[in-house]
Design goal:
The complex is a heterodimer of chains A (about 120) and B (about 220). With about 120 residues, chain A is mostly helical. Chain A has one domain. Chain A is built from 4 helices and 2 strands, in the order αβαβαα. Chain A has a two-stranded parallel ribbon with strand order 1-2. Chain A is globular. Chain B has a 4-stranded parallel sheet, with helices on both faces. The chains are: A mainly alpha (about 120), B alpha/beta (about 220).
Chain lengths: ~120, ~220
C-alpha cells in the first residue's frame, strides 16, 4: 500500500472510542486545535458492544457545544472503519486535513471571535 | 432528587460577560447524579467558558470547585477562603444552591448556570422524569403509589378526564394518562373496588405553594 498520512495528523491511541469523554474533545479545542476526528470501529462491530455508538453521541453533543461557542462544528468529526482498512484510514486523514485547510486556523487561536 | 439541566451556553456567556475572575461551583448532590452540575460538568463548563473567552482574545480566570452540597451552610462556607479574589460565582447546583451562595457571600453575585426543572428520578441513563410536585400532603397510599398531582396533567383526584384515550393523555400521545396508570396499578393490587370508588375530598392545598415559602421544623435536631 505504502500510503502516507499527512504529517499534521497526530494520532492519540485509545483502547476503545467508548473511552472518550466530552471533556477530552472540548479540551482539545480549548487548547487551540484546528480540527479533531474520532476514528472508531464499524458500527455493530465494537469489541465492547457499544463503545463506538457512545462515542458517536458524545461527538454529536460536543458539536452542539462548539456551535454554541461559535466554532464551526465541521472541525470535529466521527468516522467508522475497521483495523483492516488502511487505505480508508489514509483517505480520511487526507479528507479531514483538506477540510481543516479550507476552514483555516481555529478561532480559539486567532482570537477573532465567532466563526459561525 | 432535584433534577436540573444546564442553561444554554449562550445564556451563560451573556450572564458572565462582565466578569473576568469567576468561580464555577458545582454540587455533589442531586445535580451531580442528573449530570447537570457535578464535578464533571464543572470541568466541562469551565473549559467551554475559557474557550469562548480565548476566541474573544480576553482572559478569564476560573476557579473550579465542587461542594459536597450547596444546600448546607457548612459546605457553602468552604468558599470563604478565596471568594474575595473573584468577581462572581456561577453555581451549577439547583436553585437552592445558588440562593445559599447569594445569602452567604453578599459582596459578589451568585449566578445560575442550570435551570432547576423538577423533583424526579432516572428512568434510564440519560432520561429523568418528574415524580413529585412537593404538594406537602401526600396521597400515594390512596392511589397505588402513583402521584395524581404529578402524573395527571390536570392533577385530578378522582379519575381521568375526557382527554384520556388509549391510556394516553391528550396533551401528548407519548404521555401516559396518570389516572390510567393508577387504575391499572390498583387492579394489580386488588384494591380497585375499594380505592377507586371512594371519592377523595377536595385536597387541602394549604400545605402547597399558596402559603408562601414553606419550612420544616425539627426541634429535636436543633442546637
Amino acid at each position: 500500500m505504502r500510503l502516507d498520512c499527512p504529517p499534521n495528523v497526530k494520532i492519540i491511541r485509545l483502547p476503545c472510542t467508548g473511552r472518550i469523554d466530552t471533556i477530552h474533545l472540548l479540551r482539545a479545542f480549548e487548547g487551540g486545535i484546528d480540527g479533531l476526528y474520532v476514528a472508531g470501529c464499524l458500527e455493530g462491530e465494537c469489541h465492547f458492544l457499544t463503545g463506538n455508538l457512545q462515542a458517536k453521541r458524545r461527538v454529536e453533543y460536543v458539536k452542539g457545544v462548539l456551535k454554541a461557542l461559535g466554532i464551526n462544528p465541521e472541525r470535529l468529526q466521527m468516522y467508522n472503519l475497521s483495523a483492516a482498512m488502511g487505505s480508508r484510514f489514509v483517505e480520511i486523514a487526507r479528507e479531514m486535513t483538506e477540510r481543516i485547510w479550507q476552514l483555516g486556523p481555529s478561532p480559539v487561536r486567532t482570537g477573532k471571535g465567532r466563526e459561525v | 432528587m432535584v433534577v436540573a439541566e444546564q442553561k444554554p451556553l449562550e445564556e451563560i456567556l451573556e450572564m458572565i460577560k462582565a466578569y473576568d475572575q469567576l468561580i464555577v461551583a458545582g454540587c455533589k448532590g442531586c445535580v451531580a447524579v442528573c449530570a447537570a452540575g457535578g464535578e464533571k460538568e464543572v470541568r466541562f463548563l469551565a473549559s467551554a467558558i475559557r474557550t469562548a473567552r480565548k476566541m474573544e482574545g480576553r482572559e478569564v480566570e476560573i476557579k473550579e470547585v465542587t461542594l459536597e452540597r450547596q444546600c448546607d451552610p457548612e459546605y457553602v462556607e468552604q468558599l470563604r477562603a478565596f471568594v474575595g479574589e473573584y468577581q462572581a460565582i456561577l453555581s451549577i447546583a439547583c436553585g437552592v444552591g445558588v440562593q445559599y451562595l447569594a445569602e452567604h457571600y453578599r459582596e459578589i453575585p451568585a449566578l445560575p448556570g442550570v435551570n432547576t426543572t423538577f423533583v424526579g428520578g432516572a428512568e434510564k441513563q440519560g432520561l429523568w422524569t418528574e415524580r413529585c410536585q412537593c404538594c406537602g400532603n401526600c396521597v400515594l397510599h390512596l392511589t397505588g403509589g402513583i402521584c395524581p398531582i404529578t402524573r395527571c396533567s390536570k392533577s385530578l383526584l378522582n379519575g381521568p378526564c375526557g382527554g384520556s384515550s388509549g391510556g394516553k393523555c391528550e396533551i401528548d400521545p407519548e404521555v401516559p394518562c396518570g389516572w390510567q396508570l393508577i387504575i391499572d396499578r390498583l387492579k394489580e393490587l386488588g384494591e380497585f373496588e375499594r380505592r377507586y370508588l371512594e371519592i377523595l375530598p377536595p385536597k387541602d392545598w394549604s400545605t402547597s405553594r399558596d402559603g408562601g415559602p414553606r419550612k420544616v421544623v425539627r426541634e429535636d435536631l436543633m442546637k
